[in-house]
């Protein structure tokens, strides 16, 4: 699907190619930051006719809104759902996934006056957007025929006022909420929702690829709890899931809802030709990072320059930047450049700061659509739920972590049927380096499978307590959830009791108020409040387990675009005091880690290499932090004395014999640096095979581990009980380590830098690191695995 054009060769290319040539005009071909260009061809619409089961009024209203015919994927998914099948629709951004659930739901709710539906979104902002659209459709439906039953769509989330909540419970037939509120506000008091649950016909799970890791596993259990309560009330709702394009969406969706789910992946919506450019900022000559390593020009600064060039060409451009402050700095940078070349354009550039207010987004969307604004730098706040008519160019400054997010952001470019440009600017990070040098991993491969593990006992136990409070857990249900041993442990603690008909909550279990104790977005459930010591204003919370790393004294904390510095962290009181300050640097904590193997789940012997999936006890301690300027330059390293924390989690590990290492050209004194560098890069690359963030996982490497007696490298899940990431790494170890090796080899630095083997959170100050040794370690391990495998 991809075709490479040497830089500057296409003088009569597509619109996207012409924009790209303009952006590249300044740099000589020999110093081109471009690593790859692909032309993705245009795709034509494929229409279906309106399915005969769709109510004629629904067709009339939808048609009057500019949709004259459904695309094939919309009709197929909607019909599967209307026939009673759970279905996931996994197609491109802006391919009209909403219509697939609107058709069956509106048809059912407007003809059956009692039927209800539930819409779930991962963010409140997205839920609010969908509600707004739905209200306008149902208003029109009512004006078409007053015979049709009222739908009363309503929000029910943390922002909904008490009186509206009461009204919604009693009257609304289509509730818009999120999994957090479903867990706490609906399932937690299901008796008050009996009308709604008894009549529940459809459940929409929008953007379901967001539910991964600990959050995904929790949502999977919340949905199972919903299904079993519905069954108790005599309902069996059909689930309609919408997903970005991912590999095996049907499998992931089935695991999420706990029932077989059909998948629709053939996209009938049109899109224009797209030029995708992969871009690696140059190494800077005058600036150095930790241990004198070279530092690349920042992705944000490159994005500013690219955006300025595009705006001069009149191209409407959106730049996605990883942090809130980064978005502001990028917009400012663009304005500065424009002030010199075309001052008129300065005021047509803006930053989209967080706040997630629907009105702000509406204004921005309309300003971009009518051309008042030409360029916007934004965080991923604009990734979900925007309906911008189509932009000419999107710059993604820093790989957003998952291929699904990359396409979601990139999909904002391209008015229907017209060409567009999408540029990925790599950050100083091994995964970004890998992707810009291995375009197939980004462009040709199906998007990663999402990872969830609803059987993790750390997630399952609190969820089972919630379930038992809601309704005793039958023996069959316990078996279906693989929950027997976890229930037995809860029984030993006195929280549940087994009776002939199932598991019942005890008064002691009730007293725990299990619903409030579960934080479905992950973490320990213990929260540390971030409070402005000057005004007493509470800014937000961080998870207790992560507080030593993110809210230690001296840490820079960003809240809605404003920055604060932490003065004091009191873990016992759950409080971090901060003051407003705009330092020129970021901070990143450095941790030291010890690891002990407590059980071996799987182990394969490849001769001198052994690969295993193990249970581990990890003790880690924040020992200091680095202060780093926005340019990437390291200012200094400051020591801290924080309490140690322990995790019981899962790890993927490999051992390699000293003989094989020496034979591979790594002498004994280079063992530590070589293994350490191989471990860092492997952590950076795990997100390629398991949808996770490098901050969700950790690693340890040692030249002699007491439990194995050998040089050993571990990569573990950073959550109690694990989150499924190490398991994915274990399954895909050959692909993962091959990519890790390739990322190191691709990096042009001499002895290691943040783009390959340095890690931003290394407890040992990225020392020792042996880049050449890491390649030798990985080559030897891969040779053993692939030879035997
Ligand atoms: N069959 C159709 N014909 C023409 N336009 C359509 C059709 N279906 C949907 N649209 C329009 O496409 C746009 C995108 O629709 P929608 O927001 O449902 O997409 P989506 O796939 O949910 O997007 P996202 O990827 O952001 O979740 C809307 O403006 C909608 O009106």
From TrEMBL:
The Gene Ontology terms for molecular function here are: helicase activity
Q: Return the Gene3D superfamilies for the record.
A: P-loop containing nucleotide triphosphate hydrolases (3.40.50.300)
Pfam families per the UniProt record, alphabetical: DEAD, Helicase_C, MZB, WHD_HRQ1
Q: Does the keyword Isomerase apply?
A: no
Keywords, alphabetical: ATP-binding, Helicase, Hydrolase, Nucleotide-binding
Which SMART domains is this protein grouped with? DEXDc, HELICc
* Domain Helicase ATP-binding per the UniProt entry, residue ranges: 78-264
Domain of life according to the entry: Bacteria
| Stretches assigned to the Helicase C-terminal domain | 306-458
Record's keyword annotation contains Hydrolase = yes
Indicate what this protein is called per its UniProt record. DEAD/DEAH box helicase
């Amino acid at each position: 699907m991809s075709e490479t054009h040497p830089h500057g060769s296409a003088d009569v290319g597509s619109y996207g190619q012409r924009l790209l040539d303009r952006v590249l005009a300044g740099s000589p071909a020999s110093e081109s930051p471009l690593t790859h260009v692909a032309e993705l061809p245009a795709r034509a619409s494929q229409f279906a006719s309106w399915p005969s089961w769709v109510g004629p009024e629904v067709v009339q209203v939808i048609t009057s809104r500019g949709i004259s015919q459904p695309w094939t994927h919309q009709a197929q998914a909607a019909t599967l759902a209307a026939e009673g099948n759970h279905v996931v629709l996994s197609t491109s951004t802006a391919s009209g996934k909403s219509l697939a659930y609107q058709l069956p739901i509106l048809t059912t709710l407007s003809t059956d006056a009692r039927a209800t539906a539930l819409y779930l979104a991962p963010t409140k902002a997205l839920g609010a957007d969908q509600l707004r659209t739905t209200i306008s459709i149902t208003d029109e439906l009512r004006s078409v025929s007053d015979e049709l039953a009222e739908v009363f769509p309503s929000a029910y989330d943390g922002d909904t006022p008490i009186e509206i909540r009461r009204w919604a419970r009693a009257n609304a037939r289509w509730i818009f909420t999120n999994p957090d509120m479903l867990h706490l506000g609906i399932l937690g008091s299901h008796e008050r929702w009996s009308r709604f649950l008894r009549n529940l016909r459809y459940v929409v799970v929008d953007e379901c690829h967001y539910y991964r890791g600990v959050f995904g596993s929790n949502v999977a259990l919340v949905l199972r709890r919903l299904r079993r309560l519905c069954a108790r009330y005599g309902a069996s709702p059909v689930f309609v899931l919408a997903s970005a394009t991912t590999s095996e969406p049907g499998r992931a969706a089935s695991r999420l809802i706990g029932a077989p789910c059909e998948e629709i992946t053939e996209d009938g919506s049109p899109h224009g030709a797209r030029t995708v450019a992969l871009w690696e900022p140059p190494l800077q000559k005058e600036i150095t990072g930790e241990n004198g390593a070279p530092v690349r020009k920042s992705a944000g600064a490159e994005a500013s320059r690219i955006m300025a060039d595009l705006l001069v060409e009149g191209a409407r451009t959106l730049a996605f930047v990883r942090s809130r402050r980064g978005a502001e700095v990028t917009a400012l940078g663009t304005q500065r450049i424009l002030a010199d070349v075309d001052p008129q354009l300065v005021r047509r550039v803006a930053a989209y700061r967080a706040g997630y207010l629907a009105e702000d987004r509406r204004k921005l969307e309309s300003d971009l659509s009518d051309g008042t604004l030409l360029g916007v730098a934004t965080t991923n706040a604009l990734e979900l739920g925007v309906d911008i008519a189509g932009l000419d160019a999107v710059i993604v400054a820093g790989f957003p972590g998952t291929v699904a997010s990359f396409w979601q952001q990139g999909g904002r470019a391209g008015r229907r049927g017209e060409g567009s440009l999408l540029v990925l600017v790599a950050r100083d990070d091994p995964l970004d380096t890998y992707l810009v040098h291995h375009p197939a991993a980004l462009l040709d491969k199906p998007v990663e499978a999402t990872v969830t593990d609803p059987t993790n006992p750390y997630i399952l136990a609190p969820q089972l307590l919630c379930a038992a409070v809601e309704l005793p857990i039958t023996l069959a249900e316990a078996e279906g959830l693989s929950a027997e041993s976890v229930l037995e442990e809860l029984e030993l603690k006195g929280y549940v009791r087994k009776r002939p008909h199932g598991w019942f909550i005890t008064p002691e279990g009730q007293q725990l108020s299990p619903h409030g104790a579960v934080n479905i977005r992950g973490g320990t459930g213990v929260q540390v409040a971030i409070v402005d010591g000057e005004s007493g204003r509470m800014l937000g919370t961080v998870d207790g387990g992560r507080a030593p790393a993110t809210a230690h004294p001296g840490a820079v904390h960003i809240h809605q675009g404003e920055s604060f510095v932490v003065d004091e962290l009191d873990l016992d009181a759950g409080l971090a005091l901060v003051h407003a300050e705009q330092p020129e640097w970021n901070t990143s904590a450095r941790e030291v880690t010890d690891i002990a193997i407590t059980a071996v789940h799987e182990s394969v012997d490849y001769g001198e290499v052994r690969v295993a999936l193990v249970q581990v006890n990890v003790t880690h301690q924040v020992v200091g932090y680095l202060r780093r300027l926005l340019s990437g330059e390291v200012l200094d390293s400051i020591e801290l004395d924080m309490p140690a924390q322990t995790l019981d989690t899962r790890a993927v590990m490999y051992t390699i014999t000293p003989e094989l290492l020496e034979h591979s050209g790594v002498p004994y004194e280079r063992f530590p640096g070589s293994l350490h560098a191989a471990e860092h890069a492997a952590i950076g690359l795990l997100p390629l095979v398991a949808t996770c963030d490098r901050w969700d996982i950790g690693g340890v490497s040692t030249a002699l581990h007491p439990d194995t007696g050998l040089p050993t490298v571990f990569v573990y899940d950073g959550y109690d009980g694990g989150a499924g990431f190490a398991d994915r790494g274990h399954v895909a170890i050959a692909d993962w380590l091959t990519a890790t090796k390739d990322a190191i080899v691709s990096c042009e630095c001499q002895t290691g830098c943040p783009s390959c083997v340095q890690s931003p959170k290394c407890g040992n100050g990225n020392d020792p690191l042996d880049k050449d040794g890491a390649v030798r370690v990985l080559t030897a391990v891969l040779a053993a695995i692939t030879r035997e495998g």
